[in-house]
Design goal:
The model has no long low-confidence stretch (mean pLDDT 87). The protein has 15 helices and three strands.
Length: 336
C-alpha cells in the first residue's frame, strides 16, 4: 500500500488562504491582500537567503531564524517601521498556526516561530476632523455637478456611520432602510454584521442616488457604472478637502483619508457624551480598548475633564494674576 504524498509548502499556503482565511475565518479582501503581500515578501527573502528558487522552498525552510532575519530585513533594508514589522509578523504567525493545526509533527519548529514577540512600537495619535471641519468638507460638494449627488451621499454616509471604506463600498440598496427607523446593515471584519442608524439628511441623500429596481446593486459606483474602489473614494475625499481648505485653512496641512472620517465620527460621538461601549458597537470594534484610543486623542475632552476635576476639587478657579517685575528688579538687571 503506497503512502500518501506529504503536503508541500504550496499545498499548505493554498489551504491557508482558501480554506482557513476565506472560508473559516471569513477574512475581508483587504486582510487577504495584506497576508498575501506579507507571505510573498517572506518567501522571496527566504529563497534568496537559502540560495534557491521560491518553487524550491519546503516546509522545513520555515524556521525561527529565517523569520527573525526577515523581520530585521523589513526594518533595516526596507526601512519599514516597527508597526509594519509587527504586521508582517502577524501574517506569518497566522500562517504558522495553520501549519501547526495541519502538521503537528513539526510542533517544535512552529512553536519557536510563535514565540517571537512583537516589537514595541510608538502608537500613532489618531487623526480626526472636528465636526465643523467635517461639515465643511461635506459642504464643499457641488451637488449640481456630475456625480455631485453621489459624492455628497458618500461623504455623509462615511461621517454618519463611521464605516470602514470597505464596508461602505459593500453596501447595496437592499441593506438600507430609509424610512423610520432609518438604518443600514454593514458587513464588517470577520463577516460580522451590525446595524447603524442614519440621519434623516443622510437618508435623503442616499435616496437620490439609489437606482430604482436595483436592490442588489452596489450603492456607490464610478462614472462608468463600475463599483467604486478604495483609491477612488480617497481621490474624491481629497478633492473636497482641497476645496474646503479655501475657507478652512487648517485643512491645508491635513492628510484626510476615508479612515480619518471614521476617526472623526468616533470623536464626535465621544464629544456628544456617548458611552464608549456603545461607540464600540457602533464602529464594530472587537475590543473596547480600540475605542478608548479616541479618548486619549481628543485634547478638548481632556480639557473638559480637567476643568470638571478642578471644580469638583473645590480649588480656587480664579485666573492667576499676571507676573509683573518690580522696579527694584528692573534696576538690578539694568546695573549688570
Amino acid at each position: 500500500m503506497s503512502r500518501a504524498k506529504p503536503e508541500s509548502l504550496l499545498d499548505f499556503t493554498e489551504s491557508f488562504f482558501h480554506s482557513y482565511l476565506q472560508r473559516t475565518r471569513g477574512a475581508s479582501a483587504h486582510t487577504v491582500r495584506a497576508y498575501r503581500d506579507a507571505l510573498k515578501l517572506f518567501y522571496l527573502f527566504l529563497a534568496n537567503h537559502k540560495h534557491k528558487p521560491v518553487s524550491g522552498l519546503v516546509v522545513e525552510d520555515i524556521q525561527s531564524d529565517g523569520v527573525l532575519a526577515f523581520l530585521d530585513h523589513v526594518e533595516s533594508q526596507r526601512e519599514n517601521t516597527a508597526v509594519t514589522r509587527n504586521c508582517r509578523l502577524a501574517a506569518i504567525r497566522s500562517f504558522v498556526q495553520h501549519l501547526l493545526r495541519q502538521d503537528v509533527t513539526r510542533a517544535g519548529q512552529y512553536g519557536r516561530i510563535l514565540a517571537i514577540r512583537n516589537k514595541k512600537a510608538l502608537r500613532r495619535t489618531a487623526i480626526y476632523l472636528e465636526p465643523e471641519e467635517a461639515r465643511a468638507v461635506i459642504a464643499a460638494v457641488d451637488r449640481r455637478c456630475r456625480n455631485g449627488e453621489r459624492d455628497h451621499a458618500m461623504l455623509l454616509f462615511l461621517y454618519n456611520t463611521g464605516a470602514r471604506v470597505s464596508e461602505a463600498l459593500g453596501v447595496r440598496s437592499c441593506d438600507l432602510r430609509l424610512e423610520r427607523p432609518r438604518q443600514v446593515r454593514l458587513l464588517g471584519k470577520g463577516r460580522k454584521e451590525r446595524i447603524c442608524p442614519l440621519w434623516s439628511e443622510t437618508a435623503s441623500a442616499l435616496r437620490r442616488v439609489i437606482r430604482a429596481g436595483q436592490a442588489e446593486d452596489l450603492l456607490f459606483r464610478n462614472a462608468l457604472g463600475a463599483p467604486l474602489t478604495r483609491d477612488g473614494v480617497a481621490y474624491i475625499l481629497a478633492k473636497y478637502v482641497r476645496l474646503a481648505a479655501q475657507h478652512a485653512p487648517a485643512l491645508r496641512k491635513r492628510r484626510v483619508t476615508p479612515h480619518v472620517m471614521r476617526h472623526s465620527c468616533a470623536v464626535a460621538l465621544l464629544q456628544a457624551g456617548v458611552d464608549v461601549t456603545v461607540i464600540r458597537d457602533f464602529l464594530g470594534h472587537a475590543s473596547v480598548a480600540t475605542t478608548s484610543r479616541y479618548i486619549t486623542t481628543n485634547l478638548q475632552m481632556k480639557r473638559e475633564v480637567l476643568d470638571a476635576f478642578w471644580k469638583r476639587a473645590g480649588l480656587d478657579d480664579k485666573a492667576p494674576r499676571k507676573w509683573r517685575p518690580s522696579p527694584k528688579l528692573l534696576a538690578f538687571l539694568e546695573s549688570l
